[in-house]
Amino acid sequence: MRYQPSKHLVAVAAVLGLWAPAWMAGQDKPAAAAGPQYKDPAEFTLYDSILKDTNPKTRLDKLQEWQTKYATTDFEKQRKQLFLNTYVALNQPKEAVGEAKLILADDPKDFTSLYYTMYFTRALAGNNPTPDVLDQGEKATTALLANIDTPPPNVTADQWKGARTPVETLGHSTLGWIAMQRKTWDAAEGEFQKTLAMDPNNAEVDYFMGHRDCVGENPQKMPVAIFTSHGPATYDGTGALPQAGRQQVLDYVKRAYKGYHGSDEGF
Q: Residue 101 falls within a domain, yes or no?
């Protein structure tokens, strides 16, 4: 089944906005008298125009211009974060994760970089995931979940209490998906169970639970797997798969049922 990541990003985008630095939202000038300094007025003008630009395509052009004209800057950290968020806005997974790597090299616990490395794992993996992509996603997701009890910078405990669930849910489903690609079925099932404990209506993970058993070729679990997969094929409430995805799953369930029983009778 083709990955549909948009619902996850929509669910978390507002959350990420809770801890966006003021300079990222264009709400504040990024230099203080005792802090980092511009090399000249032209750098200030260019940086200021980037902060005010709400069009990610033209903002990327300006960021690249800034990088070309000012290879070194006192605002390197801010520039990397702006690149990352701009690539995310443009839905460019490879570039976003590449920028996240640069940030994590300086700050291994940077929440935003860990989150987007995790989030884009499946998009980068495609149909034939390489070990490097899976390892990268696992490392970022594990690091993020290891600190899930601690609110990200500039987020209050109350804000994080209501915002952490979609992040944590995506973390466990991502680890489950990675384990599924590696064919470590017990690990995959464990992570998917954690996901469903927090998000019972997650139809995609329900499908994975059934698909995991079928792919794992465990005949004893095949009837349960078929039944489990039938739910996301027909459910259309909160957390449901898109219509095209439901039809794809239903076709899969029908094939699995016929393959197991030898006919369509009783489906």
A: yes
